[in-house]
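Batch manifest, entry 17 of 40.
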Amino acid sequence: MSPSESPQYGDRLLVLHALRCAGYSGIARVSAATGLDESDVESELIDLALDGHVTRLGGEFGGWGLTEAGRAADAERIGHELDSAGARPAVTASYERFMVLNPELLDLCTAWQLRPVDGVTTINDHGDSAYDARVLDRFTELHDRVVPICGELAAALPRFARYRTRLADALDRARKGELEYVADGIGSYHTVWAELHEDLLATLGISRW
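Output type: C-alpha cells
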C-alpha cells in the first residue's frame, strides 16, 4: 500500500503535509514528495485553497504554501494520525536515531561544497573527481545507516516510505554524475533529508527553536 492509499492519510493531507515540510513549492516538488501525479496534486491544491488552507505566491521564489489555518489543520490531523496509530514511541525512537546522524550529513554537505586546496579551504569546483568520489563514498556509508531508520518510520506510518525511495534515488543519480543531486536543487539528497527532518519535528510537535 502506497502512502496515498493509506486509509488514515488521504491525498489531500499528503499534499498539505508536503507543503508543511518543504515550504513554498511548485507542483513538481509536491508531486515528488507525495508520489502523486502532478494533475492530482494540482486538483488537491485547488481544493485546499478553497478551504483556506493553502495560498499561491507568484514570482521566482513563489509557489504554493500553507496559510496559518492550513498549518493548524495539518498539525491537528498528523497529531491524530500519530496517536490513533499508536506510533508515537516508534517515531520518537527513530527521530532520536536520525538526530545522531544529522550533524554528519551537514558536515558531508560542507565537504561537498568546499574542499581544501594547498591548506586553504575553497569552493569545490568539482574538478577533482577523486575528492568528489571520496565524499560520495561517505554519503553512501551514511545512507546505509539511515535506511533502517526510514524503514522503521515507514512501518510506523506508511507515509514516511517515500523518503527512503527519494534519498536512494538522489544518491544513485549523484553517483551516476548528476552532481546537483547531492546538495543543490529540490531533488537533492540534502533537500530530501531536510524535509525528513522537518517532517519528524512536525509529526512529533517539536519546535526547532
